[in-house]
Amino acid sequence: WEHYVSCDGSPDPTVLQEINTFMSLWREDQNENIQFVMEKGKEVLNLIEKLQFLLLDTPPNEITEKETVQYQETILDLQNLLHQKYNGATEHLLKTDNMSEDSDSGNMQVVIKDKNVTLCIWANLKKNIRFKNHVFHDVQHGFDLPKSLAVNSVAVRIFHTHYDHVSPLWLQCQCVPKLKILDSKEVTVDLKENVEAAAEEEEKAKEEPSARTEEKLYSDGIKSASSFKESTNNIADINEKTEEENEKKSEILDILSQVQIPVMQEETSEKEEEVTDENIVDLRQFIPVGGVYHVDVLQLPPRAKEIKNWSMVEVLDGGLETYPYPPESEETEDTAHPPIGITLRLPDNDVIYFEDPVIARWDPAGQQWRTDGISNIIYETEQGKVIFEMDTFYTIALLQDAHLNMPYQAWELRPSGTDELLLIVTTAFAEVQIQVKDHQCMLSTVMVEEKDVLSHLTGKWMTPVHLTVVLKKAGINIFPGEYSHKYVCVNKKAPLAEFRAYRQMALVASAFAFSWSKWNLESGEEQVVLKVSEHLKADSVKDEDWSLYMFNGQRAWRLKITEASEAFSEELEDHSEFHSTLYHMLKDFASNEAIDKVRKANFLFIDTVYQLLLATRVLTYS
Fold it and tell me: Which intervals hold domain IC97/Casc1 N-terminal (predicted)?
């Protein structure tokens, strides 16, 4: 619908006929002007992004395997076409550009950039050995060529794409870990008994019509965040007016969440291959940050000749060709060839490197990033540069440990208005504040060493999935992946307790603040402990206002101890009792105003909070 109302002339990437027509027309287009290609590239990147978010954000039961394969193939076709067009534009520049010759060296140099790419080209027109190194002053990228290349008709291209179209597609389309249904007989029996007991109680206490309504909702179950959203909406419509009916909403939500418990797929797949070669980068542990650098040495194509107002250009069948280095001949097989020196300026404001990044090269044959072939690495942190040598020309990426910001040191979920809240996650390197309003979220601030960074990302409303992708690309990863538990010391919790806690927290988040507790580490796998406080104002929560609550997925109670107590105890707070849900537990101590806010909370807001909690997994990764 959004695509239809935009009416911008772009094809629908999900319709195969439309996207194939779009690609065919551009392949046939002979316009190789670099500005035209860059402008068209923006449209292609937008189409790729739409398909990626479709794969990330669509529940598994709403997309077929055939559609998934189609979207993935379309993404790869668009990526390949875009790179081919940039190759054609590079060749066109080398043939026709007569305005970029350096007055000192006589060689051609050009830097063209926009928000998506930076293209640096140097052409060795004079073949003077004195000019074998060069720095593109606009962007501070540079190179130092061996003498054998400095006397040949070659061109050097450093093509920095701020996106990554090189890494495997599964890495680009990876978001929250996949969920699967818990298949444990013990838990199933336990749940069945609890549900049956709850149903018997309900029959005695309520009228038959009410019981039939609950039975229908119970049979539907919760299969995904979207169906959770739907169920909550229906319940909210029916039970908006009275407090008794609001209690029913929580009870039904509670029973539904018992029917199917999502569990992170933490077990290693049978087909998964462990990384044994130390030169291969494990992409489950490291992720490319800051895009990709295509560093190439090219055959210098015949340049255009001006004859009587005519421009004559020799057309080569092969198109843009790379220059072989080291030379591929029998005579030079045993000869040592000098390495190529490369200097790269790290992106200033777009991304953050908390540690010196790992420099890796792409291996097209093995379809993997490798660290061999790169040597003598020097990090100039203050200048924001990295200098290294390569034995040949490679495609380069700077990779960062995906789990630098895990486990979290602290977290807090705090309401700030009607259907608004603030999620604050504090890590070893940064403090990340995410604001939620209705069905969207926004990066509020990222503080690193008391400095506000990534200002170009703050203040923009987006979906939770979009936010996770944007922050990961910027180097801020507070979203555990499918294999993160292998690389982070986690506070493991039983799925029944953890995921039902997230549901209950999201349900009451409009009026209650939640925070990290040190006792969560002491409570064991089967139970979670968290600080809770009724919070109806926009300011921060005072230390004395927090209370400790324990929840095991089936029972909640208020603890007698405080955060400052000397030892952990599960003892129940005086004058309180056990309840089956956090909502009913909090209701014992809540004001009418707080309960009213919970009752009126929008179902889209509840679902957005739930998605964020599920993505960050604050109860396990802190």
Answer: 1-130
